[in-house]
Every structure is written in C-alpha cells, then in structure tokens.
C-alpha cells in the first residue's frame, strides 16, 4: 500500500498527523507513506502550488491522502499560481471525475445539527458529484456586449460519456446501499440537464434493482432540509453538487465531520475532508481531525478494498463522538490530539 501524503496548509498538517496515527493503530501490513508538499507550503518552497515531484508521486502512489490547501497571505497570486489550483490540477491530471461525499448522522450529535434532532437523525446519504465538467470547465470569459456593457459568461456543457460514466458509479454505489438513486438536475430550464436526464435513464436500464427518481435542484435543496432521510444516493453535476454537499454537511452538525473521495476509472483515488485549511484556527491545535480520519477510512475502502478496516475506523470515530469527546466546532473543548488519542484508544479496545 503506497500512499502519497499531501498535508498542505493550515490545519491540514495538524489533522493529517491524527489520521496517520489512526492508520498506524490499525496495524496494517506493508504501509508505505511518502510525504510531499502541496499548496502554499509548496509555493513557498518550490514557487508552485503543485510541484512536478508532488504530481509524480500522486501519479505513482496507490492512493492520495490530502489535507487542505489555502493560505490567505498568498491570496494575491495570479490565477494559475493560486494555491487552490493544486487540488484542481490533481483532479484533472489523475482524471478523478467522481466525487463521493457521504453525510450520515452521528449518534449523540442530533442536537448540534441546524435541523430538528428527529430530522437530522435520519440522515444517511451519499452525494455523488461530477467533478470534471459543467460550467467550471466550459468556455468562459468576460467581454463587452454590442451595447457596450461588460458581460461575464461560463458555458454549461456535458457530453453523454461524461454523464454515463458518473451515472454508472452512482448506480453501483446505490446497489451497495439502500438501492435508491435520485438524480438532481434542472431539466425544466437547462438543455444540459435534458440530456443528463436522458442518459441517466439509459444507464438505469442496466440496473433494474435500483429505484431511480429525478428531482429539480431547487426542490432538492428544499428537500435536503425538510426531509433528508428520504435520500440514499444523490447524483448530480459539478455546480449543483458543490452547493448541495456543503448544505448537507451542516445538516449533520459540523464541516469537521465530512469526508470525501475523488475517484476515476482505476482504484487510485484522492481522499480529503470537505473543509479547507481553516486559517482562523490553524496552529492552535483545536481543529477537528474527524473528517480527515474518515477520509482515510474511505481510502481503505475504495482504493484497497479493506472494508473491515474502513468500518473499524469509522466506528471508532463515531464512538468517540458518542462518548462526548468533542472539539470546539461541536461546542466541546477537546483538542485535535485529544480527539486523535481517543480514536487510537478506541481502536485498541
Ligand atoms: P474552511 O473550510 O477552511 O473553514 C470554514 C470554517 O469552518 C472556519 O471557521 C473554520 O475554522 C471551520 N473549520 C473548517 N474545518 C474545521 C475543522 N476540521 N475543525 C474545526 N473547524 C473547522 O473554509 P474557508 O475559511 O472558506 O477557506 C479557508 C481556505 O481554505 C481558503 O484559502 C480556501 O480557498 C481553502 N479551501 C480549500 C479546500 C481544499 O483544500 N479542498 C476546500 C475549501 C476551502
Ligand atoms: Mg465547495
């Protein structure tokens, strides 16, 4: 098991330390960890947020554990040197088109959700967001109209292959869960969505055991807050998925709890918490490492097929939360390393 460890900026370093301790506590065989710089740390040392040697390591490792990038002192850099471009570069270079973001209620935390406890307690969903298309990668620019007004534009486009490959990932994910798939689009207005819906319907024919439904994105945003328990797998495009997944995280309780996997056609994946580098709390030892540890669990499952170990790690994090070992993001006072200690102790018990 060869893992590229890219801790990055801000709290990335602190939470990565705890994730590696938790992996170590699992007592895995043949674990090889190679560290490399990414983000602001890399820019300061090498003049680039995604140095060649980091990309090379990411391409040759079996999986990538990624902390976060983001450094407010470097915000003035031009677009291609911005430290956030490192994560986009990795996704693009490694063709990681499927972003899996599970959101599940944790026992004992229902009162901390922005939703009513009984509504929040029912959350157990997986958002599958397409990562390499949509308005983020279509033709874009700024121009002057004939009337002399400034205009910005971003073209939304998906071709059928891009839709079908993510749809297959979503149907297979649903088969491993409660066999319900809700595809979210805006087919009442957008031609991109009309094609999206048609292709998802075509792919559905290969998965007769999965119950497929379609929902407009505005309704989906409403339903996520009204009754999130109705969702199993939610399949959607890049921009809708970006927004809906942040919304789903707050329904669970804290952004410090949500992990993600970015996958392509091989088993090589990139695993990272959904939050950023949290410069406001960096260096204080108070970040919640749960999302990072849960990202390591997703790595064990998706890149190495180690379902038992992944489940053990997830259960340890859930038990620690249930015991009330909470960081400041959840109204507690446990430090980053105290939460890590508790997870390691749980794994040893
Ligand atoms: P953020 O997710 O870093 O922080 C948002 C808020 O949540 C902050 O108040 C932070 O203290 C808190 N928070 C985040 N993670 C936490 C944790 N594990 N434990 C406790 N509290 C936590 O988002 P923000 O502030 O918008 O962005 C900060 C930097 O991170 C920016 O430079 C941004 O571009 C970058 N970023 C990087 C991402 C990545 O590496 N994939 C994703 C999102 C943002
Ligand atoms: Mg986002």
Automatic annotation (TrEMBL):
<comment type="pathway">
    <text>Amino-acid biosynthesis; L-leucine biosynthesis; L-leucine from 3-methyl-2-oxobutanoate: step 3/4.</text>
</comment>
<comment type="function">
    <text>Catalyzes the oxidation of 3-carboxy-2-hydroxy-4-methylpentanoate (3-isopropylmalate) to 3-carboxy-4-methyl-2-oxopentanoate. The product decarboxylates to 4-methyl-2 oxopentanoate.</text>
</comment>
<feature type="binding site">
    <location>
        <begin position="276"/>
        <end position="288"/>
    </location>
    <ligand>
        <name>NAD(+)</name>
    </ligand>
</feature>
<feature type="binding site">
    <location>
        <position position="242"/>
    </location>
    <ligand>
        <name>Mg(2+)</name>
    </ligand>
</feature>
<keyword id="KW-0464">Manganese</keyword>
<feature type="binding site">
    <location>
        <position position="129"/>
    </location>
    <ligand>
        <name>substrate</name>
    </ligand>
</feature>
<feature type="site" description="Important for catalysis">
    <location>
        <position position="186"/>
    </location>
</feature>
<dbReference type="GO" id="GO:0000287">
    <property type="term" value="F:magnesium ion binding"/>
</dbReference>
<dbReference type="GO" id="GO:0003862">
    <property type="term" value="F:3-isopropylmalate dehydrogenase activity"/>
</dbReference>
<keyword id="KW-0560">Oxidoreductase</keyword>
<keyword id="KW-0028">Amino-acid biosynthesis</keyword>
<comment type="similarity">
    <text>Belongs to the isocitrate and isopropylmalate dehydrogenases family. LeuB type 1 subfamily.</text>
</comment>
<dbReference type="InterPro" id="IPR004429">
    <property type="entry name" value="Isopropylmalate_DH"/>
</dbReference>
<dbReference type="GO" id="GO:0051287">
    <property type="term" value="F:NAD binding"/>
</dbReference>
<feature type="binding site">
    <location>
        <position position="218"/>
    </location>
    <ligand>
        <name>substrate</name>
    </ligand>
</feature>
<dbReference type="GO" id="GO:0005829">
    <property type="term" value="C:cytosol"/>
</dbReference>
<feature type="binding site">
    <location>
        <position position="101"/>
    </location>
    <ligand>
        <name>substrate</name>
    </ligand>
</feature>
<keyword id="KW-0963">Cytoplasm</keyword>
<keyword id="KW-0100">Branched-chain amino acid biosynthesis</keyword>
<feature type="site" description="Important for catalysis">
    <location>
        <position position="136"/>
    </location>
</feature>
<keyword id="KW-0479">Metal-binding</keyword>
<keyword id="KW-0460">Magnesium</keyword>
<feature type="binding site">
    <location>
        <position position="246"/>
    </location>
    <ligand>
        <name>Mg(2+)</name>
    </ligand>
</feature>
<feature type="binding site">
    <location>
        <position position="218"/>
    </location>
    <ligand>
        <name>Mg(2+)</name>
    </ligand>
</feature>
<dbReference type="InterPro" id="IPR024084">
    <property type="entry name" value="IsoPropMal-DH-like_dom"/>
</dbReference>
<protein>
    <recommendedName>
        <fullName>3-isopropylmalate dehydrogenase</fullName>
        <ecNumber>1.1.1.85</ecNumber>
    </recommendedName>
</protein>
<dbReference type="GO" id="GO:0009098">
    <property type="term" value="P:L-leucine biosynthetic process"/>
</dbReference>
<feature type="domain" description="Isopropylmalate dehydrogenase-like">
    <location>
        <begin position="2"/>
        <end position="343"/>
    </location>
</feature>
<keyword id="KW-0520">NAD</keyword>
<comment type="subunit">
    <text>Homodimer.</text>
</comment>
<keyword id="KW-0432">Leucine biosynthesis</keyword>
<dbReference type="Pfam" id="PF00180">
    <property type="entry name" value="Iso_dh"/>
</dbReference>
<feature type="binding site">
    <location>
        <position position="91"/>
    </location>
    <ligand>
        <name>substrate</name>
    </ligand>
</feature>
<dbReference type="InterPro" id="IPR019818">
    <property type="entry name" value="IsoCit/isopropylmalate_DH_CS"/>
</dbReference>
């Amino acid at each position: 098991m060869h893992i590229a460890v890219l801790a990055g900026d801000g709290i990335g370093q602190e939470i990565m330390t705890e994730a590696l301790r938790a992996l170590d506590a699992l007592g895995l065989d043949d674990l090889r960890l190679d560290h490399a710089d990414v983000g602001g740390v890399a820019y300061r040392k090498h003049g680039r947020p995604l140095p060649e040697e980091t990309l090379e390591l990411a391409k040759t490792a079996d999986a990538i554990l990624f902390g976060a990038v983001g450094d407010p002192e470097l915000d003035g850099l031009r677009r291609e040197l911005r430290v956030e471009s490192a994560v986009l570069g990795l996704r693009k270079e490694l063709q990681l088109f499927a972003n899996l973001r599970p959101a599940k209620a944790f026992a004992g935390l229902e009162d901390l959700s922005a939703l009513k406890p009984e509504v929040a307690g029912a959350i157990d969903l997986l958002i599958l967001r397409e990562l390499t298309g949509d308005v983020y990668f279509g033709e874009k620019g700024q121009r002057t109209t004939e009337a002399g007004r400034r205009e910005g534009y971003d073209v939304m486009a998906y071709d059928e292959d891009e839709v079908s490959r993510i749809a297959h990932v979503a149907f297979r994910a649903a088969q491993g869960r409660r066999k319900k798939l809700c595809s979210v689009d805006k087919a009442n207005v957008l031609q991109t969505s009309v094609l999206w819906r048609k292709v998802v319907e075509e792919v559905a024919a290969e998965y007769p055991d999965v119950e497929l439904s379609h929902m407009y994105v505005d309704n989906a945003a409403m339903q996520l807050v009204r009754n999130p328990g109705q969702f199993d797998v939610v399949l959607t495009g890049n921009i809708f998925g970006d927004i809906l997944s942040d919304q789903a995280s707050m329904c669970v309780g804290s952004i410090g709890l949500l992990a993600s996997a970015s996958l392509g056609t091989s088993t090589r994946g990139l695993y990272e918490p959904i939050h950023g580098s949290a410069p406001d709390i960096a260096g204080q030892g108070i970040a919640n490492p749960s999302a990072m540890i849960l990202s390591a669990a997703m790595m064990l499952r998706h890149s190495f097929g180690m379902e038992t170990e992944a489940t053990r790690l997830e259960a340890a994090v859930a038990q620690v939360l249930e015991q009330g070992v909470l960081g400041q993001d959840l109204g507690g006072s446990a430090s980053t390393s105290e939460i890590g200690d508790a997870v390691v102790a749980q794994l040893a018990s």
